[in-house]
Amino acid sequence: MKPETGVSYFANGWPHHFKRDLDDILAHHCTYIVHSFSENEMVFARSRTAQFFKMTCDAGLSCWANPWAVMGLFGGEQFSAFVPRNPEACQILSTGQRAPAACPSADETRIAMKLWIDMAVDFGADTIFWDEPHLYIPDWDDLRFAPDSAFACFCPRCRISFQNRFGQPMPETLTAEMKIFREDLMVNFLTEMIGYAKDKGARNAITFLPVEDEASESSRGIASPTFADSTFLALTHTGFCTTKTAQNTSPLKWNAPCKSARRAD
User: Fold this and answer.
1) What is the pLDDT of residues 79-131, one digit of tens each?
2) Global pTM value
């Protein structure tokens, strides 16, 4: 299989500048562009994003959409508009603090993620690039919002789910059961979203965190049957690890008022 070569593209909002960059990308024989499609683009730059996606496809390149820092669940240096507008859907840390990131188990989170996929595919993306999926990591925050030892998620939904699964209250330390629970929390979320994107005709690609602890918790599900049902192109920060590629509600308003109701799994 001939390897694909691509480049990420973000932080430019001028179509004429993108046209020049596009010519340069083609001259370097790239086959795809990874566009950072953040909540900022969803709220303020939908038409421009659609234009850039179309220009990419018209140039004969594959168009990859990256949920850049969307809801605090993926890599990227952006604040989330979803988080302050849906506080009850946020992760709760072991310290009791509400993290600035959505909980994958919340119904609101899953509805919003599917809305993002809908927009990305409607704009012309043929591949969804799941970039560094993770639960909240305190030491990424230079303002030290929470101690580095804090971890998620202790929201009411996750507490109930943990109790039902393991027959005991959620521990305040990273026990073996807690590690499994955290892994599966993200794997189950990604499995649903990857399947949803596949059903819409998109391919899926994923990259894992290069940090040992987070990477082990992010990648355990790659061999699980549910993940294998939605085959994808798997990447790491250090190079290609596999090259198996496959073809792969009511919308939640991103400017909706904060919700006070709590929902269980």
Assistant:
1) 999 999 999 999 999 999 999 999 999 999 999 999 999 999 999 999 999 99
2) 0.82
Q: Give the Å distances, CA to CA, from 56 to 5, 15, 125, 209.
A: 14, 11, 9, 27
Averaged pLDDT, 184-207: 96
**Measured between alpha carbons, how far is residue 195 from residues 149, 202, 248 in Å?**
33, 10, 8
- Decide if 200 contacts 124 (C-beta within 8 A): no
Decide: 158 and 170 in contact? Cβ < 8 Å.
Answer: yes
Euclidean distance between CA atoms 249 and 117, whole angstroms? 13
Token duo for residue 86:
């849906």
Q: Which two tokens stand for residue 78?
A: 């952006």
Phi–psi pair at 213, nearest 5 degrees: -65, -50
What would the DSSP string read from start to end of 64-111? EEE-TTGGGSSSSS---SHHHH-GGGEEEBTTSPEEEEE-TT-HHHHH
Please, is 236 exposed, middle or buried when counting C-beta atoms within 10 Å of its C-beta (0-12, 13-18, 19+)?
Answer: middle
Closest to 116 in 3D by CA, of 163, 53, 46, 18: 46
20: exposed, middle or buried (C-beta count within 10 Å: 0-12, 13-18, 19+)? exposed
Residue length of the chain: 265
CB atoms within 10 A of CB 242: 12
Q: At what angle do helices 107-123 and 46-58 cross, to 10 degrees?
A: 50
Higher pLDDT, 238 or 65: 65
Amino acid at 165: R
CB 86 within 8 A of CB 75: no
